[in-house]
Amino acid sequence: MTGFSVRYDLEAAERIGAAIGAVLIAGDIVLLSGDLGAGKTTLARAMLKARGLAGEAPSPTFAIVQPYAPPEVDLPIAHVDLYRIEDEDELIELGLDDYLYDGALLIEWPERLGGEGWPGALSLRISGQGDARVLTAEVPAAWGARWPFR
């Protein structure tokens, strides 16, 4: 696992999310952590836009899982918000593993996964506010040469 950290503002968040979204492949999991309002959904929206989503992606806070499939995007992606999950048993009902057969997962509030979470996932942690945000990534070996920031 490789570490990466960068200071950024909201404008740069679009570029960062787009670069990560452009290299997503089936089976990828991106974990997005940070406080309320940190910018997790902004990064996820940029990733979805990079895969062809034309409109604005709604926050999946109430739906919990917001799936996107071709022709809306070129890779099936489920945008997941676990904020309202209170018990690990609720996760089984979501069937998140099923999305990985031919698509990717973008998961906000992965802390709710409990236990070990998802080994091999790209972990993005946002801290700070406004123009003083810091994105810290734990980049798994599976991302290898695909990681867009060197």
Briefly say what this structure is.
By secondary structure, this protein is of the alpha/beta class. It has a single domain, classed as 3-Layer(aba) Sandwich (Rossmann fold).
Give your account of this protein's structure:
Strands 1-7-6-2-5-4-3 form a seven-stranded mixed beta sheet, with helices on one face. The chain has a single domain, classed as Rossmann fold (3-Layer(aba) Sandwich). Helix 1 packs across helix 2 (40-50). It has helices at residues 10-22, 40-50, 89-94, and strands spanning 2-8, 29-33, 65-68, 77-81, 104-108, 122-127, 133-139. The chain has 150 residues and is α/β, with parallel strands linked by helices. Strand 6 and strand 7 form a beta hairpin. It is built from three helices and seven strands; from the N terminus they run E-H-E-H-E-E-H-E-E-E.
Please estimate the helix content. Answer: 10-25%
Count of DSSP H/I helices: 3
Percent of residues in beta strands: 25-35%
Q: Could you say what the CATH architecture is? A: 3-Layer(aba) Sandwich
What is the assigned CATH homologous superfamily? P-loop containing nucleotide triphosphate hydrolases
Overall mean pLDDT stands at: 89
**Biggest β-sheet: count, sense, barrel?**
7 strands, mixed
What is the string of SSEs from the N terminus onward? EHEHEEHEEE
Tell me the strand order in the biggest sheet. Answer: 1-7-6-2-5-4-3
Q: Ranges with pLDDT <50 over ≥5 residues?
A: none
Output the structural class. Answer: alpha/beta
Overall CATH class: Alpha Beta
What's the end-to-end separation, in Å? 14 Å
Total beta strand runs? 7
Q: What is the total domain count?
A: 1
**General shape:** globular
For the CA atoms, what is the radius of gyration? Answer: 14 Å
CATH topology: Rossmann fold
